[in-house]
Specification:
Elements (H helix, E strand, L loop, with lengths): L5 H7 L3 H22 L2 H7 L63 H4 L3 H15 L7 E3 L4 H15 L2 H4 L17 E3 L2 H10 L5 E5 L2 E7 L3 H4 L17
Antiparallel strand pairs: 1-2, 2-4, 3-4
């Protein structure tokens, strides 16, 4: 049998033209949809970027700074993570807290400004000399309020288990040379090493063997050298009052 012509095929299959038209419409609609939405890559590129968290991260400890003991713990930031006082109030800069990097020249911090004037003068004279060799005197702690000292003592008792054990590290508010402004804790090890070698020339002496960062003014040391250090604060007669 001879093959049918296209016209004959169309007549024998009346639905084929309709189906073909529908298929074309479907293809056109699909292409229009793709064109309107864009490719997957384009859609992804149009999405808003993720915003990094704005929560501040804790500042790392100063690399040259020794770990702080209970006696020298201070707030790393004047406005955050400050210790709580005995009555529940936050203790900050006004009580003697200092941020990392504070130096003996930073009068804006009471921990520095409230030091005994003779001690502060000796520290600044020594710091000026040390700076010529690239050494800077950073302050871990200086003057402290009675409330701050009481807080440190409470923490030390909790840490060491008894008031007797805590006395090796933290004095009472009534006896602490920090509360009276007569002591400073130097934070960075290069400054501590410099003062260990040259401090007596300025009357600046280490007082306790277990606290090599703790310095007080002993004017006679300029001529006679620094006195023998106490093993720890519990051996200092001043702490027995």
């Amino acid at each position: 049998m001879p093959s049918s012509t296209p016209a004959q095929t169309a007549r024998h299959h009346p639905h084929s033209t309709i189906l073909s038209a529908l298929a074309v419409v479907a293809v056109v609609a699909a292409l229009a949809a793709v064109g309107g939405c864009g490719s997957p890559a384009e859609v992804s590129a149009a999405a808003p970027p993720r915003v990094a968290s704005t929560t501040p991260r804790p500042s790392p400890s100063h690399p040259s700074r020794p770990s702080r003991t209970s006696d020298e713990r201070v707030g790393a930031d004047a406005d955050a993570d400050r210790p709580e006082g005995p009555t529940g109030g936050a203790l900050g800069v006004a009580d003697g807290s200092v941020p990392d990097g504070a130096t003996v020249f930073d009068d804006q911090y009471p921990a520095v400004a409230n030091l005994d004037p003779d001690l502060l003068g000796a520290l600044r004279t020594a710091a000026t000399a040390a700076k010529r060799t690239g050494v800077e005197f950073e302050v871990n702690s200086g003057w402290r309020s009675r409330a701050y000292q009481e807080q440190l003592l409470d923490e030390a008792i909790s840490t060491y288990g008894s008031r007797t054990a805590a006395a090796r590290w933290v004095a009472t508010p009534a006896t602490s040379p920090h509360v009276s402004g007569d002591a400073v804790d130097i934070g960075n090890s290069d400054a501590t090493a410099w003062l260990t070698k040259h401090g007596a020339e300025y009357g600046l002496c280490q007082i306790f063997r277990n606290e090599p960062w703790h310095f007080e003014l002993r004017p006679h040391a300029v001529d006679r050298g620094c006195p023998v250090r106490y093993a720890d604060p519990s051996h200092d007669p001043r702490m027995q009052q």
